[in-house]
Amino acid sequence: MSPRLRWRKFVSGFMLTLTGVCATVAVSVLFFILGYLVYHGGSSINWNFFTKLPVPVGEIGGGMANAIVGSAKLLLLASLLGVPIGFFGGVYLAEFSNSSIAFVVRYAADLLNGVPSIVIGIFAYALVVLPFKHFSTLAGAFALGVMMIPITLRSTEEFLHAVPRALREGSMALGASRWRTIMSVVVPAAYRGIMTAILLALARVAGETAPLLFTAFGNRYWSPGVSQPTASLPVMIFTYAISPYDDWHRQAWAAGLVLLALILIVNIFARAIVSRGGTILR
Amino acid sequence: MHASVRQAVSVNINPPTVNPSRETAAPASMRMSINKVNFFYGSKQTLFDISMGIAANKVTALIGPSGCGKSTLLRTFNRMHETVRGARLQGEILLDGKNILAQDVTQLRRRVGMVFQRPNPFPKSIFDNVAYGLRINGSKLPVADAVEKSLRHAALWDEVKDHLHKSAYELSGGQQQRLCIARGLAVEPEVLLLDEPCSALDPISTAKIEELLVQLKDLCTICIVTHNMQQAARVSDFTAFLLMGQLVEFSPTPHMFTTPSDPRTEAYITGRFG
């Protein structure tokens, strides 16, 4: 074997190993985080964690039932705002707009997607918290909903674009109007993709802390209705993690574990929707 | 244009026989007439001064090499060209004597149906595919009966009657294309346009669809675009030959394929180009 060939074989082998190691690192980060959360927080996860309110400092135990319910309420309200606007905006973008309007909307959506979440929090603070003069579930949901709009809009648009033109023509050739065609042929053909995108958007905002800090704020107790400050898992983690108490630290780890598990479940569920029955394109 | 085609007089149409003499059946009433149609994509003109007629309850074939404008012409017949941005049409297209460009487009497409090059069933069940046209048009007919009738007309009923509620995507390509024909027939169109309906199919499926077209003549008027000259010769009563956006020759099919009057037609059908 000539030295030249030996060198080439060495470089090839070295690069192959390097890419393999990087891929392993990328995957193991997730499992490392998961393992770390289980190690630190696993012991605090029990029935009480899901059913009890936080207890005063000094007492051991208690739970985060209010934060879990608070997060659920925030996400539900955020979806009510973000999903319809994002979905119908995406339909408009994909089906009706001419190219110059589409360019502007698409660009604006991408910019909105890039706005730091803390800035969206300030925006919601100015628009919802200040006029009502107190923090509320509504304000937090507004901030999260705004964050969901660009994700839902862009992915709705992309999945609708992936529907073959032939399907639209087939429907129009039977005398269907454009709206009828979109609603009864195009959207059903793309609905798996759109559903997945909505779930992923939900998973994305579920972990957001910054936009909630001065909108939903936080609450040690239950938050009835939508006009009171409310606890949420991410903010609870933040508050507990920076506290000086060991028991709170354990609870923060546990909350992190619950949050991550919920997001993973949503992700897996979303992927299952996509893979079930294959794609819309034959 | 051949003189016998231009005659728009209603005469007794020969009842279909095993071996109909298509030459003698030629003088038929016109379902559609196309008068001086010019077509543009943006500033590019793709059809030049096309005038021809589509005889009622006959099969008219449009042939010509790729890019000659035959599909474009077909798509103007039910205004599908309007779904493409920058498309512009000049001239007049009459359906039963009325200009289609002045009519409500959804009403028009209900009367002039279309089957496309590649089978394009909707992501729904077989039944819902056929029922789609009836439902969107708010038909009062019992849907199930109409679906069965259409599937029978499309010679698909016996193959699918036991799994009407399965996804249309589980059918073979040829079955999907017949499903699309059934879907088009369900709204009982007066004219059925077919845009190279067999180009994505195997020879056996193609033969089935060709056989079907000949039978469907009793039901509606048929206009088919094909790049396959043998197919045009087998199924059509009239053939129009287009070349670079111009109508070169339009005659009864047997005439076109035996004694073409234009040297370009002869060159094309004898395989010297295209």
How is the CATH topology of chain B named? Rossmann fold
- Overall average residue pLDDT of chain B: 86
| Average pLDDT number of chain A | 90
How far is the first residue's CA from the last residue's CA of chain B? 22 Å
- The count of helical stretches of chain A stands at 11
Shape of chain B: globular
How far is it from the N-terminal to the C-terminal residue of chain A, by CA?
Answer: 50 Å
Set out the fold topology.
The complex is a heterodimer of chains A (282) and B (274).
Chain A: H1 3-41, H2 47-51, H3 65-96, H4 99-114, H5 117-132, H6 137-161, H7 165-172, H8 178-206, H9 210-213, H10 233-241, H11 246-275
Helix pairs in contact in A: 1-11, 3-6, 3-8, 4-6, 5-6, 6-8, 7-8, 8-11, 10-11
Chain B: H1 3-6, E1 30-41, E2 44-55, E3 59-63, H2 70-76, E4 87-95, E5 98-99, H3 105-111, E6 112-115, H4 126-136, H5 143-153, H6 157-160, H7 173-186, E7 191-195, H8 203-216, E8 221-225, H9 229-235, E9 238-243, E10 246-252, H10 253-258, H11 263-269
Parallel strand pairs in B: 3-8, 3-9, 6-7, 7-8
Antiparallel strand pairs in B: 1-2, 1-4, 4-5, 9-10
Helix pairs in contact in B: 4-5, 4-7, 5-7, 7-8
Can you describe this structure?
The complex is a heterodimer of chains A (282) and B (274). Chain A has 282 residues and is mainly alpha-helical. Chain A folds into two domains: 3-44; 49-275, MetI-like (MetI-like fold), CATH 1.10.3720.10. Chain A is 76% helix and 0% strand. Residues 277-282 of chain A have low confidence and may be disordered. Chain B has one domain: P-loop containing nucleotide triphosphate hydrolases (Rossmann fold). In chain B, helix 4 packs across helix 5, helix 4 runs parallel beside helix 7 (173-186) and helix 5 (143-153) packs across helix 7. Residues 1-26 of chain B have low confidence and may be disordered. Chain B is globular. At the A-B interface, helix 7 and helix 8 of A face helix 3, helix 4 and helix 7 of B.
